[in-house]
Amino acid sequence: MKHIYITRRETFNAAHRLKRDDWTNEENERVFGKCCNQNWHGHNFELFVTVRGIPSKETGFVINLKTLGDILKDGVIEKIDHKNINVDVDFMKDQMSSTENLAIGIWDQIEDEIMKLGGELAKIKLVETENNYCLLYTSPSPRDRTRSRMPSS
User: Fold this and answer.
1) Active-site residue among 3, 41, 78, 82?
2) Which residue in the list 29, 35, 100, 111 is annotated as catalytic?
3) 3-class secondary structure for 53-93?
4) Is residue 41 among the annotated active site residues?
5) Using one digit for the tens of pLDDT, what is the confidence trace for 115-139?
6) This model's pTM is above 0.85
């Protein structure tokens, strides 16, 4: 049977600040630049969630995309939309609010619910700006797999 990948897109707006409390203001500004603004800054995020699976003989669906949308709204969007990631988002508590960490946090929020429906969370694409996004995959990237097969010296 062939595996199919389906993707659902959601959007949300959120503010954050990249800052380490154990660093000086100068060090934070050097490393994080404008993202360290003391008055915070925000983004209009785009979230793409891709699920892998075998279509059901009964419905033809890997999983119902409306149900996936409900999982995303309940597990992520309602918790983060128009919120301060550093202060208001429970699954980001004690985490640096980078896009990378946010993608990991989102993954952890939705993976189990998707598995209960018979799907496998395959990829998250989190777009922070038109120029910046991150990808999180269920398995190592092809480059990582190549490295793991290389003999050690």
Assistant:
1) 82
2) 35
3) ECCCCCCCCCCCHHHHHHHHHHHHHHHHCCEEHHHHCHHHC
4) no
5) 999 999 999 999 999 999 999 998 6
6) yes
